[in-house]
Amino acid sequence: MTDTTRIATPKAPAAGRPEVRLRAEALTLSYGNRTVVHALDLDIPDGTFTAIIGPNGCGKSTLLRAFGRLMKPTGGQVLLDGRPVHRIPTREVAERVGLLPQSPAAPEGLSVADLVARGRHPHQSWYRRWSSDDESAVEEALRATGMYELAERTLDELSGGQRQRAWIAMALAQRTPLLLLDEPTNHLDLSHQIEVLDLVRELHLTTGRTVVVVLHDLSLAARYADRLVAMKDGRVVAQGAPRQVLTEELVREVFGLRARVRLDEVTGAPLVIPLSRHDAPSVDGA
């Protein structure tokens, strides 16, 4: 288990502060004339671990970009702690929301320590330079992700799982109460997927951070998240606890896939078993 005891815990909500940290209200998102998200309503409650699932092109990553203020709505709005996110200064958003995109890029030869230090940039200004607080935040993030001993290595020297942990460490160094992760297990083998998701869940549980993650693997989403949001064609079709959302009917409706959904005997979470067209139908005709 990684050492997470030193990561700073986000402050408790102030009196009158909304329990919903992020809210999409009639949110519409477009690329040119192509609308990707259609009048979507969605709440992200404080302190939850939410996984967004759905087929390619359904708007998952686009929604996450809007939550992180990287994409301006063509309709509706995103609220951060009850305020329209696009009316909040960029630096202030960066102090509250950490966003790790799907395929982050860094300059060649960049060390792990230098990458993680970039997470402190939102806290810098002409009158506030690098401080002992910044140094502490970087060290804590490195230790929490198990990257402290690799701090002087370049990203090019690391395995896929180690690189992903380094990027997560950078997001942690921001010390934001909200963490948005777009397919953090993309291009990783199964052991590294488990390693990364174990880390994210442990950080969520020990620090109280609100986590929103986009995942393709339905069984892993159900195993790690306490809330699932299923999307199709830019709309939310189901949301709630994994056992409520992840059903055979939903998998058929959203993904066009016949599957069996069973409860994992180890975790108790729904486990999706895809069926091919060659598999015999069951008695219910599925």
TrEMBL record:
It holds the Pfam family ABC_tran. Residues 22-258 form the ABC transporter domain. SMART domains: AAA. The keyword Membrane applies. InterPro entries: AAA+_ATPase, ABC_transporter-like_ATP-bd, ABC_transporter-like_CS, P-loop_NTPase, Siderophore_ABC-ATPase. GO terms for molecular function: ATP binding. Keywords: ATP-binding, Cell membrane, Ion transport, Iron, Iron transport, Membrane, Nucleotide-binding, Transport. PROSITE patterns: ABC_TRANSPORTER_1 (PS00211), ABC_TRANSPORTER_2 (PS50893). Signal peptide: none annotated. It is a peripheral membrane protein. Its main location: membrane. It is found in: Cell membrane. PANTHER family: FE(3+) DICITRATE TRANSPORT ATP-BINDING PROTEIN FECE-RELATED, IRON(3+)-HYDROXAMATE IMPORT ATP-BINDING PROTEIN FHUC. This is ABC transporter ATP-binding protein. The lineage of its organism: Bacteria, Bacillati, Actinomycetota, Actinomycetes, Kitasatosporales.
